[in-house]
Amino acid sequence: MGSVSLKIGDGTARFRRATICSSAVNGLMLFSVLTTNLFALYAFTWNPKGHSNSHENPLLQAHKNMSLITEQVSLIMKEIESSQKKLAQMEKELLGYESIDLSNPNIASELKTYLQRHVLPLGKDSKTGITEMVASVGHSCSKSMDMLSQYMNYKVNGQCPDDWSLAQKLILRGCEPLPRRRCFAKTIAKVGNLYPFPASLWKPVNDKIVSWSGMACKNFTCLNSKKLSKDCVGCFDLVNGYENQRFIKARGKNDFLIDDVLAMGGGGTRIGLDIAGGSGTFAARMAEKNVTVLTQTLNVDAPYNEFIAARGLFPLFLSLDHRFPFYDNAFDLVHAGSALDVGGKPEKLEFLMFDIDRVLRAGGLFWLDNFYCASDEKKRDLTRLIERFGYKKLKWVVGEKGGSGQSEVYLSAVLQKPAKMELAWKDS
Fold it and tell me: pLDDT for 76-118, tens place per residue?
């Protein structure tokens, strides 16, 4: 069963397949018509045993029958109305309307305003079937209502609180995307220390043009003295150390060079995605090769996003639990390191790998750069997962780093997505 949608302007009409809820309502209406007819037939032919009166006025008998029919029809209409309400409630729950109880008095008024449903002025949309516009907010936000209400408690049209660390905590708890706010974010004067592109790629970033609130370190010198992650050791030092030599000078067999990897792509690499890209050095090197790379990162213990932006590159403030906000087959290359091991859980890694595969075009390259294999089991699990996708191994190196009995195993690989993915998946 379907419905007809008229498109105003071109005089054409098209049929649209009915939604589950509309099909259920149509079924209920058909059921009610059949039931009404059956009740009518029953009412006109029924004669109670022991109470029949052959001499009863026919008009009085007909009136009684009509009263019975009216009563039964009224009951049926109530049942239909109740069913429609239940179906509407089911639709709201399926679309996430009721994930947050807006009647709670402890919820910030701004959050209630943001999450308020807005009915479409022309009724149900014929293409999508939706009847209301719903604000986008992470489903896990309902589990952190106190923090979320604190985040949404601000002065409208005023200055936003200096609470980026609170926002990041919410994101890391799965409250992503965050609700929008009607306040002005804190601005930081650039004090004349921004350099033109491409000189900005390798110029030191001034401590004063980033926000240090909520961080243990208050300058880049402090950060460069710490090991922030396996992919970021001294990564904010663009002058001294190894950062300005990465991807053009190898320190071991696991370090691949950008020119070599780009040659494997056959010259078709134009845009890429760097997952957990530290201070943006991979994107900087790619920019020198006329390849545009977006760097996904959070500000965990360091102002990664501001630093990347100061270099004239594109930071993407997004957790790895969030579906990549890109259309299918968008990138020519995806680069990732040890951060690919999301929480150490194989199921989460599999979800992430499928999303990487989704945004990578056929023939594109997946560069796995120095992935830390904490155990042989971890290495086997990752290897089996990659092989199930059917990617072509253009380069595959397993090596050790360190010494004095403290060596660690790392995997580096360049893999090419096959052209026909419908035949690529291999069951293990």
Answer: 888 888 877 777 666 555 444 456 777 777 788 888 888 877 7
Residue type, 83: S
Q: Residue 251's closest CA among 334, 370, 333, 365?
A: 370
pLDDT, one tens digit per residue, over 144-199 is: 999 999 999 999 999 999 999 999 999 999 899 999 999 999 888 766 678 999 99
Quote the tokens at residue 333. 């290359």
Q: How many CB atoms lie within 10 A of CB 136?
A: 11
Per-residue pLDDT of 382-421, as tens digits, reads 899 999 999 999 999 998 886 555 778 899 999 999 986 5
In 138-291 the beta strands, taken as DSSP E runs, fall at 227-229, 232-233, 271-275
pTM here is 0.73
Dist CA 287 CA 281 (whole Å): 10
| The total number of residues written for the chain in this structure | 428
Of 273, 279, 284, residue with least CA distance to 197: 284
C-alpha dihedral sign at 136, 139, 140, 142: positive
Positions of CATH 3.40.50.150 in the chain? 199-423
Domain 199-423 in CATH: superfamily?
Vaccinia Virus protein VP39 (3.40.50.150)
